Amino acid sequence: xxxxxxxxxxxxxxxxxxxxxxxxxxxxxxxxxxxxxxxxxxxxxxxxxxxxxxxxxxxxxxxxxxxxxxxxxxxxxxxxxxxxxxxxxxxxxxxxxxxxxxxxxxxxxxxxxxxxxxxxxxxxxxxxxxxxxxxxxxxxxxxxxxxxxxxxx
Length: 153
Hints:
Number of strands: 6
Order of helices and strands: HHHEEEHEHEE
Helix content: 25-40%
Strand content: 25-35%
Low-confidence stretches: 12-30
Largest sheet: 6 strands, mixed
Distance between the termini: 40 Å
Strand order of the largest sheet: 1-2-3-4-6-5
C-alpha cells in the first residue's frame, strides 16, 4: 500500500513540474548581424532569447525557442519549438537555403522528440507561406497581418 501511495505522489509531482516554468533573466537585446539583413534591430529585440538556439546554414538563420517559454503563442503543447526570425540574406534567396534550414529545423525537432513547430508569418510573405506549406505547415490561426503556422511532428 505504501508503494502505491509513493508512486501516486511521484506521478502527481511529475505532472505539477510540467507546469512550472523557471524564472530566468530576460535578455533585452541581441546583436545578430545575420538577422539585420532581414529585420530591423527593434523587431529583433522584442523577445527573450535566453532559451533560444541559433540555427545557421549557409546564409540562412533562425532561432528555436521551446514553446513553454513563449507566452504570446497558442499553447498547443509545451513540447514544441517556436521558430523565430527565420532569415535568408537577400543576396542568397531563391537558392534553396530556406528549404535546407527548414529541413534541418524539422530534423532537429524530430530527433528531440518535439510535438510541433510553430511560427508567425506575415500574410504578405507569400513565398515564405508557400515554402512552409511545402514542408507540412498549415495555418493554425490568423490575425489581420499574420498567420500562425504549425507543423505537427
